[in-house]
Amino acid sequence: MKVSVFVGTSVDGYIARSDGALDFLPPDGGEPHGYNEFIASVDALVIGRNTYETVLALAAWPYSETPVFVLSTKALRPPPAGAVVERMTGSPEEIVATLTRRGFRHAYVDGGVTIQSFLRAKLVQRLTITRVPVIIGTGIPLFGPIARDVMLKHLETRQYPSGLVKSEYEVLA
Fold first, then answer.
1. Residue 36: its H or E element
2. What is the distance between the alpha carbons of residues 157 and 84, in angstroms, rounded to a whole number?
3. How far apart are CA 156 and CA 15, in angstroms?
4. Burial (Cβ within 10 Å: 0-12, 13-18, ≥19) of residue 44
5. Looking at residue 45, which CATH number applies to its domain?
6. pLDDT band at 124 (very low <50, low <70, confident <90, very high)
7. Distance separating alpha carbons of residues 50 and 72, to the nearest angstrom
8. How far apart are CA 119 and CA 127, in angstroms?
9. What SS3 class is residue 1?
10. Total structural domains within the chain
11. Helix (H/G/I), strand (E/B), else coil: 159
């Protein structure tokens, strides 16, 4: 199974404010920068409970009918009508094994803790980071402490008129 990350950050590397707010990100994702093409290529999303709660607060469910697997040991608030949501528990390796057995081929992993745990488990193959031209100073970091270097191969960096800068990497090890 292919596992990818596609995430927006502030220039100083935060994916959300300390309270989970995403108000520094451009409305509706900003100008087209490859997200729609990326999301069309995935057949499963894996997110943490905090990310799920943040997404539930959005005006519209952003994932259409793509199955969303929420990593949580607690019961989840009900999803909106038409959303396909399932709670899962287990290590990243167990989650990937379960999704593979169920026939999924490309998982999109999102949320700070979830991204970090899948990177630590060496399960992410592609990492796309779009930097928004703002410094927020504090918040939830994309990356946390790691026990080893995560080697990347730079594939492409592209800038957009609004100031977005998207970099794509292959995760080597």
1. helix 35-41
2. 33
3. 21
4. buried
5. 3.40.430.10
6. very high
7. 9
8. 10
9. coil
10. 1
11. strand
DSSP codes, 79-136: PPTT--EEEE-S-HHHHHHHHHHTT--EEEEESHHHHHHHHHTT---EEEEEEES---
Whether pTM exceeds 0.85: yes
What sign results for the dihedral spanned by CA atoms 150, 8, 45, 3?
negative
Sign of CA dihedral 171, 33, 42, 61: positive
Q: Which residue has the tokens 């069309």?
A: 40
> Two tokens at 141?
């970091």
CA nearest 115: which of 34, 50, 22? Answer: 50
Instruction: Tell me which residue has tokens 């292919």.
Output: 2
| pLDDT of 139 over the 80 cut | yes
Average pLDDT of the chain, as a whole number: 93
In one-letter notation, the amino acid at residue 149 is D
> Which residue range forms the structural domain that includes residue 146?
2-171
Please name the residue that has the structure tokens 């952003």.
62
Residue with tokens 């709670």: 87
